[in-house]
């Protein structure tokens, strides 16, 4: 199957088959990690630009490593060190990058929809690396990949997403992807951190993790995004941790093979305890590794590669 889209802007717009193709393509990409020479020539001669308007460590480095593993040339552009600070518009920045020969632009932006705007004005492929509170598609894909790798399937799993659902682009990408692949999605948070229309996305809402923990196969824990909150939505971090923080006590009645996930960065002692983060149930470090494989797959497919021809 050929991936026929120019851009990857979100999982909401992808078909089930497209998501499955990306997950399948990531398998041989991950196999590259165990080879003596951990590079493939698939994107030799291509230029990949990381354009980040927000701070990022994991996602930016993961994309850069993914591009280099496929032999692409990479350029990192920080908005604070570019003409953006002089007042250059998003579209003018995009046109400049395209004129310099960029084949792929990976973009993170604080405003929802910014990568979509850019994609309409340049012929280069655009990958959304997180836009506002909208989506973070490659994080959603790497979470799906990790679940499938560990559980052998997605269909039929009960997945709990715990934390700041209101401000989380990761939650939205996970919800779209999980629903399309047949999982049952449960969101758990204080009422103030749950969007009013969330049930229309096909999820079940809970206000205590104890209500559903016994049934969950996977728990994906989100950090509190204080930088996106314009008002105080709970009394204190201490109270949030006591009621919604995932610790060993709250997992006493969970399944023995429960999968514990977190997209990072973690606020240890707030949304997750160190004993849970470092426990045998945790696959948090494996998510980081899988993120490189998924991003390699996305870069490869957007550049015209086919699943059968990975070298």
Topology, element by element:
Elements: H1 16-31, E1 47-52, H2 58-69, E2 73-78, H3 90-99, E3 104-109, H4 114-119, E4 125-131, H5 137-151, E5 158-162, H6 169-180, E6 184-188, E7 203-206, E8 218-221, H7 237-244, E9 259-261, H8 274-277, H9 284-302
Parallel strand pairs: 1-2, 1-3, 3-4, 5-6, 5-8, 6-7, 8-9
Describe this entry's structure for a reader.
The protein has helices spanning 16-31, 58-69, 90-99, 114-119, 137-151, 169-180, 237-244, 274-277, 284-302, and strands at residues 47-52, 73-78, 104-109, 125-131, 158-162, 184-188, 203-206, 218-221, 259-261. It has 9 helices and 9 strands. By secondary structure, it is α/β, with parallel strands linked by helices. It has a 5-stranded parallel beta sheet with strand order 7-6-5-8-9, with helices on one face. Strands 2-1-3-4 form a 4-stranded parallel beta sheet. Helices cover 33% and strands 15% of the residues. It is globular, with a radius of gyration of 19 Å. It has 2 domains: 16-136 and 288-309, Rossmann fold (3-Layer(aba) Sandwich); 137-283, Rossmann fold (3-Layer(aba) Sandwich). Helix 2 (58-69) crosses helix 9.
